[in-house]
Design brief:
The chain has 85 residues and is of the alpha+beta class. The chain has helices at residues 14-20, 27-34, 38-48, 62-71, 73-81, and strands at residues 24-25, 51-54, 57-61. Strand 2 (51-54) and strand 3 form a beta hairpin.
Length: 85
């Protein structure tokens, strides 16, 4: 594992460390980890350009998806919560 994850070690638990080891995730893994519904997860994965299809299997490049989440934080909140804010 590379990067700056050690800088946030006081805020990271075992689940975060295990998740960070995956380069590719499935929709289910993403929904469970990020706490998203199925449709917002699918929409954001495709919008980020992080979707890779291998046969019938759909994989999401975690690094690209998380960069998208960081860059579009307000837009992501609107996709999840609607226009409540």
């Amino acid at each position: 594992m590379s990067g700056c994850i050690w800088m946030f070690s006081d805020r990271i638990d075992d689940v975060d460390l295990e998740f960070a080891q995956h380069d590719f995730i499935t929709y289910r893994m993403g929904r469970e980890y990020y706490g998203l519904g199925e449709k917002p997860m699918i929409r954001m994965a495709w919008a980020s350009g992080a979707v890779y299809k291998v046969g019938k299997k759909v994989l999401i490049k975690r690094e690209i998806f998380e960069e998208y989440l960081r860059q579009h934080r307000k837009k992501v909140e609107d996709l999840i919560y609607g226009d409540e804010a």
